[in-house]
Design goal:
Elements: H1 14-45, H2 49-77, H3 79-96, H4 103-130, H5 137-164, H6 168-187, H7 192-210, H8 212-219, H9 239-266, H10 269-297, H11 299-319, H12 323-351, H13 357-379, H14 383-411
Helix pairs in contact: 1-2, 1-4, 1-5, 1-6, 2-3, 2-4, 2-13, 3-4, 3-6, 4-13, 5-10, 5-12, 7-8, 9-10, 9-12, 9-13, 9-14, 10-11, 10-12, 11-12, 11-14, 12-13
Length: about 425
């Protein structure tokens, strides 16, 4: 049952459903623009390929900055106000694409859009995942992350369809509408942590009235906590699993970066058009089952199957000689990412102290965004040396290393 504030002992509370839908809309907005931005720059401003690619990827720079500073902003404004701010600015910035003011202005809009996207996405993830009961954390986060899966399938499809159909103006207007709907959802999200903080503050206030001198002593006992520290932006307990997952995301980032070029070179362009459909379907099918298995059997069997599937998927993609082989590789990769990502996030937030929940979420997604954003820089020079096929197979080996690291860190008690 759901009470007046949207709380419940189950997973599907009002807050969970609204938060998941808001996250879906954020990802649709993000992916629609990401897949067409380079083409938009070339068609509208006659920009060269490198400049157009930079206009697309600079979005990630803004998102990374937001991931780092979002805990401090959330601490100052609260989660709900931060989410409303982020979605409001995403709406305004999505509409700003309708004004053709030159490449410099476009770069500024892209960075700011990325920043407020990162701020909003980090905040809604904290709001939604913290509302899930501990006994159903793996299952609940699995369901929540389906919003990422669906967004990553709908967004590119809409972007490509609108670009080749009605055109960029309609596409930008649609992105602004999507962000506005997310803003409407953000205004109705309930922040359970705000109530807990208010209650805790009231109790602390009562204690302070009882013993003012003791309260003053406690407030000055740890002055360093009020100053700048790396721990303001990074949660230490989230680092082990984040390091593991970032190695996996290097492979994922390489695929989304180079798939179309690889498919054109290998004569697999037709299958490449359906690649992310197969990828998303595998995620949709697997996530609810793997989430339940995580809660009932623990992380080891679930993560083991995810790593195995991901490695097989990368190898199949790298060795694909026909369309069927490429799409089978997409399914294995979808199962792998669909298992490792939500399980990793569950392991991340489960170890974090209650007052560090936002920082743990931020830390995890900083690593994921960085892995995807750095792929063109890290691997662009390797393609002429080992080919796209060699790169995918090599990154399958990196995923094996990630699994070994996961086992080692788990044995030492740093994961789990």
């Amino acid at each position: 049952m759901i009470d007046a504030e949207g709380t419940s002992d189950g997973i599907f509370t009002r807050g969970f459903i609204v938060g998941t839908l808001v996250n879906l809309l954020l990802y649709i907005n993000y992916y629609v623009l990401m897949v067409v931005m380079a083409n938009y720059c070339m068609d509208t401003y006659a920009a060269d390929l490198s400049t157009s690619g930079f206009a697309a990827s600079i979005f990630i720079v803004g998102a990374l900055i937001a991931r780092f500073v979002s805990p401090a902003i959330i601490g100052a404004l609260g989660r709900k106000r931060t989410l409303v701010l982020g979605t409001f600015m995403m709406t305004a910035l999505s509409a700003a694409y309708l004004v053709n003011a030159g490449m410099v202005v476009l770069f500024a809009v892209r960075v700011l859009h990325g920043f407020f996207y990162g701020l909003a996405q980090t905040t809604v993830t904290s709001l939604t995942t913290e509302s899930i009961p501990d006994a159903h954390k793996g299952e609940g986060i699995g369901y929540y992350m389906l919003s990422v899966t669906v967004g990553s399938a709908i967004g590119p499809f809409l972007g490509t369809t609108l670009m080749h159909g009605p055109g960029f103006t309609v596409m930008f207007a649609l992105c602004a509408i999507v962000a506005a709907v997310a803003l409407a959802g953000a205004t109705s999200v309930h922040d359970a942590s705000a109530r807990r903080a208010t209650d805790a503050g009231a109790r602390e206030g009562a204690d302070a009235l009882k013993d003012g001198a003791e309260a003053r002593q406690c407030s000055t006992a740890n002055p360093a906590k009020r100053g700048f520290a790396l721990s303001t932006f990074i949660e230490r307990t989230a680092l082990p699993i984040s390091f593991v997952v970032v190695l996996v995301y290097l492979g994922y980032g390489a695929v989304i970066t180079y798939l179309n070029a690889f498919a054109a070179e290998a004569g697999l362009a037709t299958a490449a058009g359906f690649f992310f459909v197969a990828y998303a379907l595998a995620m949709l099918v697997s996530r609810p089952f793997t989430g339940k298995a995580f809660d009932r059997r623990g992380d080891l069997p679930v993560m083991t199957s995810g790593f195995a599937a991901f490695v097989v998927g990368l190898v199949l993609i790298g060795m694909a000689a026909n369309d069927v082989m490429l799409l089978v590789g997409a399914c294995f990769m979808g199962y792998g990412i669909g298992t490792i990502q939500p399980s990793g996030l569950t392991l991340c937030v489960r170890r974090a102290p209650d007052d560090r929940f936002d920082v743990a979420n931020s830390t995890f997604f900083v690593f994921l965004d960085a892995a995807i954003g750095l792929c063109p820089i890290l691997f662009g020079w390797t393609v002429p040396l080992i080919s796209y096929r060699g790169l995918f197979v090599l990154l399958g080996g990196v995923a094996v290393v990630a699994f070994v690291l996961y086992l080692a860190l788990r044995k030492r008690g740093l994961i789990g």
